[in-house]
């Protein structure tokens, strides 16, 4: 059994029959009252974000999660289809279970979190940075570099991202999948 002293960022807890991941946590200590532990929680199996407070030392119920590498195969009406790289088993996840679905490339690798109690997938997380080819971008204006001006560009998955003016169609760029921002150009 775990207590509030075991809380860490990214831990998944079971509260009121739902799973929540800890986004942020801290401790409030006052001179007279007992210490309290607070946490900002984001729903894993729902889209809610809540805050919870416990007395210091109170029991919590963490969920053991296993992370495995899967390959993205395709998207159809049932959702996103992934294949286990070791056993070749296939699973299907809903749109809301995938971290940043607009950046999924066929054949790309993701990390799927699996609840070890139920053996069911909880969600899929993309690598932090992925390389994409630009399929469409307006040509940049020569000499317009005084400010950090950005323009829209469409990448091979169909998503639109903001890129600097010097980036052109057909080039490879690296994108941060957590923020959706341009990181840098990649040489071929």
Descriptive key words:
53% strand; 5-stranded antiparallel beta sheet; 188 residues; OB fold (Dihydrolipoamide Acetyltransferase, E2P); 0% helix; mainly beta
Question: What would you note in describing this structure?
Answer:
This protein has no helices and 16 strands. It has three domains: 2-60, SH3 type barrels; 65-125, Beta Barrel (OB fold (Dihydrolipoamide Acetyltransferase, E2P)); 129-186, OB fold (Dihydrolipoamide Acetyltransferase, E2P) (Beta Barrel). The chain has 188 residues and is mostly beta strands. The N and C termini lie far apart (52 Å).
Shape from CA axes? flat
Q: For the largest beta sheet, what order do the strands appear in spatially?
A: 9-8-7-10-11
Radius of gyration, whole Å: 21 Å
What CATH first level of the largest domain would be assigned? Mainly Beta
What's the number of helices? 0
Query: Uncertain runs with pLDDT below 50, 5 residues or more?
Result: none
- Classify the secondary structure makeup into a structural class: mainly beta
Q: Would you count the extended β strands for me? A: 16
Helix content: under 10%
CATH architecture of the largest domain: Beta Barrel
Main beta-sheet strand count, sense and barrel state: 5 strands, antiparallel
What is the fold named in CATH at topology level of the largest domain? OB fold (Dihydrolipoamide Acetyltransferase, E2P)
- Looking at CATH, the homologous superfamily of the largest domain is Nucleic acid-binding proteins
Tally the structural domains: 3
Name the average pLDDT.
87
SSE pattern, N- to C-terminal: EEEEEEEEEEEEEEEE
Classify the beta-strand content into a percent band. over 45%
Q: For the terminal residues, how far apart are their CA atoms?
A: 52 Å
